[in-house]
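Dear Dr. K.,

Following up on our conversation at the group meeting, I've run the structure prediction for Major facilitator superfamily (MFS) profile domain-containing protein from Aedes aegypti. I'm pasting the input sequence below exactly as I used it, so you can double-check it against your construct before we proceed with anything downstream. Let me know if the numbering doesn't match what you have in your notebook.
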Amino acid sequence: MVLEFLSKRYWKQFLAINAVHIITIGYGVTVGWTAPIIPLLQSADTPLPGGPITVEQVSWVGSFFSIGGMSGTILYALIHTYFGKKTGLLMLAIPHLILWNLLWMGDSVYYIYAARFLGGLTGGGIFAMVPLYVADIADRTIRGSLGSLTMLHINFGLLASYTAGNYLPYYLIPKIMLCLPIAFLAMVCLLPETPYCLLRKGKVVEAEKSLMFYRNIPDVTRKTLAFEYEFESLKTFTLSEVNKEKLSLADFTTPAAIKGLFISIFVMALNQFSGIFAILTYAGNILEACGTSMDIKYVLILIALINICGNITSFIVVDMAGRKTFLLISTIGVGVSLGILGLHSYFSYNDDGFVSYSWVPVLALLANIYSAGLGITNMVGFVIPEVLPAKIRGIGSTISVVLLCFFAFVILKVYPILLERIHIYGTMWISSGVCAVAILIIIFVMPETKGKNLIAEEPTEKPRTNAY
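The predicted structure tokens came back this morning:
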């Protein structure tokens, strides 16, 4: 698959999306920052002059991230709608630059709250724009694989955060991370605006040049029938989008819109209430509560590596196996592993003899993380544009991501409290039950959207030649 991306036809799409994902790596670092750092902030060795933080403060450190995510989704949706996706992408660097300065200079938990809010702001922007950017520039035959790169890069950041948080001084990490948004700005400045955004502004010539860039066509003499067909289809689609009637309530009440919105909200809810984001955020606390005999520092790194393995597996085969199949496999794996983790916690809490099985929670967590990487965590970005009708795709995606951030706020706020009050087993069983319900919805309601044409609502026959 990688060799295919680096072929003459696809390599610019591949490199462009990887350039955009430099900021996504930084976002991944902010996601994983809490796992090794929160136990440190709660300990007697806390770097904060005010002393260790409380469980209540821990819950706010987690949930401020999601408040920022809700704000960022709306803010960046407006920016890319009125100013274009390139401008919106470039502006993702601003909150990222500020948050690392806050963590570098901050000496109280309130600086951390502000930094977490800005980290969420960046994340909201990423989820609001990057899937649409991928949909704008990617060939539909590889759209799923390119879409899965978002979670892959987040998990590279997660691995870096889990590693650095355990071995580098608290105030050194922000200094290093300031380099990332600067590199992101330098790379994204070199990319053209997407063809769709340029066509919406009436810049037909620039739009054609942009599509030629992303399809790696060096000059007009190399244009093929397939390229001409694609560009004409895109012009027709964009013109219909510009000239169409304004959205009304009726547009959201059609059978296709209702089903698309339901599936979008369902995928977002599953992404959060399966517990995977909370587990990644509070992994250090969960491992401590499990009482594993393994060194938590190494387990955190192993979790991040397994997470990447799950994403790579999905990246390689998702465009062959299909979205529905992989999401089903992922949900079953997450549900079963959470059930096992809950059972171990229940028996170890009531039976001291279970101490000898302290490897079980680590294995269950690793299985959980790998299973989630196959589908639950990485299909959010590209399934939603595929299930929503074209007319409500933009606003529907925004609504879905805002709800994702709201669900994340709820789960990150309550998870530390649940872990303290109903222990690991009660918390894990709740998330496992969510997965059980989700399995039924995936089987009986969710359609397969692999290879769906995003320009036309119904599949359109293309010229047989597909060579560029």
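Two things stood out to me. The chain has two domains: 1-191, 252-449. The two ends are 18 Å apart (CA to CA).

Best regards,
J.T.
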